[in-house]
């Protein structure tokens, strides 16, 4: 494996773009720094893509794709089976990179990595699926045949929070079916979400030009997005990330009648049903709300509890949250590790301070200890507050009481409805002090 990140006390290595099967210096020559979110240590220097480089990557993908899709299913699937085997051999090192580069605790990183060989083998298996359908025709004696063919080149933009698996899942199936890829990983995970995968597929025998990895600083991300949404040679985009960026890209794709596959953020409720085992519910919410510092698109952040058990649940989840002391990801017990970057930490601080100022009660945590945010439990949130609607994406949960299950479902689903607003106001008003 390439030496991806610096050992303690050594110079960070510099990594170039991966275009047409070759490591290439960016045309404009710029690099940005890849940091450890836990310690701030410089891990690597990463090439910062420019317009001319994106052009080269798309051109390489366009040129290579027909040859790749013309290979037999057995030839294409073999690359993915080999990649799965090589991945398994490198798993420990890749899990280490995931922890270092993104502040992932070991347990979460190991789980994430365990999904990758499954996805690779799944993609391999797709190559022999049926290619279409035979449909009836209105012309006697004839049938209509539909045939599925590769679209050509797919642009892929991926996030840093589950960077290995979400990146793999963003492109391997399409690639197995004969498409070529231009991948831009997140600026906070350029190695584990992109460059290390270029190495993996090269070692597995993928032909040049089929997977191109263009790394970009945050400042250049929008340029890549615009390029990929505008360029007619890229008919499909796959995006995993925030709803805000996803919306921008979806609008740009719609203007060009371009297809986009989105996986965005969430504002995920948990309903603790009346009579539930509260200790078990607290254990589940502790895991679902705080793992990986709550930086997962399916993290639980609105917890709805029946009025009768609300006080007990709140007391117990506070006690549980206090055990998730901010810790280095290298600590085997790490649940609440570093927030990925200062921008995200400041966003969490602003969101929670704003709700506190508007009357929400912060029972524990509620403060940044850079690069960490303390594990936080919030109550008395009203639907008028931004935090009722906006994903926290940090180690914090909101707890809200409900008076019957129908209302709980209304609250869970009714993020933006007037009924949801009225329901919260009614239950909130009826609670004792
Ligand atoms: P987060 O806030 O969690 O970082 P983002 O949606 O901002 O989530 O980032 C997800 C991916 O989208 C990253 O690869 C990032 O670089 C990229 N990105 C950010 N802004 C843009 C943009 N304007 N156009 C295209 N991609 C973008």
Number of strands: 19
Count helical runs. Answer: 13
Distance between the termini: 60 Å
Characterize the main sheet.
5 strands, parallel
Keywords: NAD, Oxidoreductase
Domain Aldehyde dehydrogenase: 31-414
Active site: 263
InterPro entries: Ald_DH/histidinol_DH, Ald_DH_C, Ald_DH_CS_GLU, Ald_DH_N, Aldehyde_DH_dom
Question: Can you walk through the features of this model?
Answer:
The chain has 433 residues and is an alpha/beta fold. Helix content is 45%, strand content 19%. The protein contains 13 helices and 19 strands. Strand 11, helix 7 and strand 12 form a beta-alpha-beta unit. Helix 2 runs antiparallel to helix 5. The longest helix is centred in the N-terminal third of the chain and has 30 residues. The model has no long low-confidence stretch (mean pLDDT 95). Bound molecules: adenosine-5'-diphosphate. Adenosine-5'-diphosphate (ADP) binds next to helix 6 and helix 7.
What does the secondary structure layout of this molecule look like, with pairings?
Blueprint: E1 14-15, E2 17-19, E3 22-24, E4 31-35, E5 42-47, H1 51-70, H2 73-102, H3 106-126, E6 132-136, E7 143-147, E8 153-157, H4 163-176, E9 180-184, H5 191-203, E10 211-213, H6 218-230, E11 236-240, H7 243-255, E12 259-263, E13 268-272, H8 278-290, E14 300-306, H9 307-323, H10 342-357, E15 361-364, E16 368-369, E17 372-373, E18 376-379, H11 386-389, E19 396-402, H12 405-413, H13 418-430
Parallel strand pairs: 1-5, 8-9, 8-11, 9-10, 11-12, 13-14, 14-19, 18-19
Antiparallel strand pairs: 2-3, 4-5, 6-7, 15-18, 16-17
Helix pairs in contact: 2-3, 2-4, 2-5, 3-4, 4-5, 8-9, 12-13
The structure holds adenosine-5'-diphosphate.
Adenosine-5'-diphosphate (ADP) binds at residues 157-159, 184, 186-187, 221-222, 224-225, 241-242, 245, 248-249.
């Amino acid at each position: 494996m390439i030496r991806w990140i610096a050992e303690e006390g050594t110079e960070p290595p510099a990594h170039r773009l991966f275009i047409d099967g070759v490591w290439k210096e960016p045309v404009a020559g710029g690099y940005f720094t890849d940091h450890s979110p836990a310690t701030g240590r410089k891990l690597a220097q990463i090439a910062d893509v420019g317009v001319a480089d994106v052009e080269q990557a798309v051109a390489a993908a366009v040129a290579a794709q027909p040859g790749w899709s013309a290979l037999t299913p057995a030839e294409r699937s073999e690359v993915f089976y080999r990649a799965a085997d090589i991945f398994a051999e490198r798993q420990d090192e890749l899990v280490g990179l995931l922890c270092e580069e993104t502040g992932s605790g070991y347990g979460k990183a190991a789980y994430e990595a365990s999904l990758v060989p499954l996805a690779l083998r799944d993609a391999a298996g797709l190559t022999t699926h049926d290619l279409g359908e035979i449909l009836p025709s209105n012309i006697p004696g004839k049938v209509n045949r539909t045939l599925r063919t590769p679209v050509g080149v797919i642009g892929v933009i991926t996030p840093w929070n589950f960077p290995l698996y979400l990146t793999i899942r963003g492109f391997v199936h399409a690639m197995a079916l004969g498409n070529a890829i231009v991948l831009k990983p997140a600026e906070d995970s350029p190695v584990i979400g992109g460059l290390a995968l270029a190495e993996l597929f090269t070692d597995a025998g993928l032909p040049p030009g089929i997977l191109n990895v263009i790394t970009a600083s945050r400042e250049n991300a929008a340029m890549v997005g615009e390029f990929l949404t505008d360029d007619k040679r890229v008919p499909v985009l796959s995006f995993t990330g925030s709803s805000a960026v996803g919306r921008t890209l979806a609008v740009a794709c719609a203007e060009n009648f371009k297809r986009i596959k989105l996986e965005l953020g969430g504002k995920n409720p948990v309903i603790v049903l009346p009579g539930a085992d509260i200790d078990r519910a607290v254990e589940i919410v502790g895991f679902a709300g705080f793992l990986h510092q709550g930086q997962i698109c399916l993290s639980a952040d609105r917890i709805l509890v029946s009025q009768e058990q609300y006080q007990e649940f709140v007391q117990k989840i506070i006690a549980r949250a206090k055990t998730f002391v901010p810790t280095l990801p290298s600590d085997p017990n790490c649940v609440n590790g570093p927030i990925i970057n200062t921008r995200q930490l400041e966003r969490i601080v602003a969101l929670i301070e704003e709700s506190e100022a508007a009357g929400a009660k912060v029972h524990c945590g509620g403060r940044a200890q850079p690069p960490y945010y303390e594990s936080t439990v919030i109550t008395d949130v009203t639907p008028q507050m931004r935090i009722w609607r906006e994903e926290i994406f940090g180690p914090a949960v909101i707890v809200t009481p409900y008076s019957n299950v129908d209302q709980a479902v209304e609250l869970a689903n009714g993020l933006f409805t007037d009924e949801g607003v009225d329901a919260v106001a009614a239950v909130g008003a009826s609670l004792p002090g």
